[in-house]
Design a protein that fits this description.
Elements lengths: L3 H7 L2 E7 L2 E5 L5 E5 L3 H12 L3 E5 L30 E3 L4 H20 L10 H24 L9 E5 L6 H11 L5 E5 L7 H4 L5 H8 L4 E4 L2 H15 L2 E3 L4 E4 L2 E7 L6 H10 L9 E8 L6 H14 L7 E8 L6 H21 L7 E5 L4 H10 L2 E4 L8 H9 L7 E4 L4 H5 L4 E2 L5 H12 L3 H17 L2 H13 L4 H6 L3
Helix pairs in contact: 3-4, 4-5, 7-8, 9-12, 9-13, 10-11, 10-15, 12-13
The structure holds adenosine-5'-diphosphate-glucose (ADQ).
Amino acid sequence: YLMPDVVASSGSMIVVSNRLPFVLQRDKDGKLFRKASAGGLVTAVAPVVINGGGLWVGWPGMHLEDSSEPMPESDPTDITPTAGLKSEKVVAVQMDPAIFDSYYNGCCNATFWPLFHSMPDRASFKRDHWKSYGIANKEFAECALKALRSLPKTSTEVPLIWIHDYHLMLAANWIRQAAEEEDIKCKLGFFLHIPFPSWDICRLFPWADEILQGMLGCDMVGFHITDYCLNFVDCCQRSLGCRVDRKNLLVEHGGRTVRVRPLPIGIPYERFVELSEKAPRVLSTNQKIILGVDRLDYTKGLVHRLRAFEKLLENHPEHIEKVSLLQISVPSRTDVKEYQDLKEEMDQLVGRINGRFTKPNWSPIRYIYGCVSQDELAAFYRDSAVGLVTPLRDGMNLVAKEFVACQINVPPGVLIVSPFAGAGETMHEALISNPYEIDDASEVIHRALTMPEDERILRMNYLRRREKLNDVNYWTKSFLSAMGSLLTQGEQDDVGS
Ligand code: ADQ
């Protein structure tokens, strides 16, 4: 997947993420087996780990009573990129289930998830959860060190440790300190998949300084877009008093200079094109489809989206019986009350709108609560007239990118994105729609449904070209090059307050 020169110059890579790229399960005889995940991130990063002689550190999705129980190999029929990740290349993090629950469901999902999406009212701040977060991060750091010590030492290649996401914001400092004490060389990089909030929001977290210091344990910290980088730099200056350089995105901390970089994630573009070329047609041709695909999460703006669609039918009755909204929502974090409430609200709203507008041969909303296969997803993306990606806040949003990759029909459909998603910042030719402004959001949908063919073609061509160039492999390469290149003298001198 990667240009050989990039792999060759990068040294071995240790990826540290909350979850391994597969989950462990037991069959009916109690034997462990792997269930592979095939997300874009795994597809892009697994080959770098495998080809570069690296390792993957993460939670395997279950608690193992006996920690010496051997890790299973992948199934011989597994053709996903993780198949090459032999068990000796995996370090499965284990910890007390109660600590894991308080770290994961408590601190990660009930505190950082809402807070970093600028929804502080939904965030809970509990000292116990924060304590568990520290214990869990220490455990991940210990496992990363174990992985680091196991790598063969070469004089030319310095191993890279790539830490992912809001679950592991404290791990870097522990890894750095221990590696320095043991005189093991390594470079540390971090990537945050969700937004980094402004200082006003960040400071609400009582232990924000520790988070910032944890992230500054890295040599490079990556975010999807420049806005998040600037928020981070600002927080480092205002909370920790660091000297910063906003122009070059540098932060001085503990006698080191940390690079901050916008690295917008991409998708496996060609894979989606191929899927959409092969997938059979599943949607009927006599109605236009407006498509929404999301995890069922309160950040995704689903309730606002349904209201905007209802408004469209109210203000533009010409779309009745001609247009349907197909909303596919994957169940997510179903044991958390906020998510159960959202499910309830969606069920009621879909019922109410359908009850209000349905005709004998047409319903306005088709609502799938569940996962769909990649083939089916590609067919939905390809055959929809409008892709509606309207989160209230979102780090990037891969659905917007998958939609444009699958738009192979001529003339193509139209993408609508929220300005509060990273995708809204980078996909300039999409129609931009503020999900909070329901009237305007409904007018933007109307505009998409009535857009002339030549404008649709022009916009979609630009969108597709950008995603093709900036695919997920490009993202991995950008991360490696941001890690690899040394600070120039100019950058060192530029750090000022
Ligand atoms: P998520 O919040 O999970 O990711 P997103 O980027 O949209 O959000 O990715 C969702 C993925 O799940 C997509 O690849 C999509 O195809 C898939 N998916 C969604 N609904 C599905 C369904 N019903 N059936 C099958 N597949 C479905 C986090 C951040 C994002 C950031 C990514 C990557 O919140 O902002 O873009 O990480 O960095």
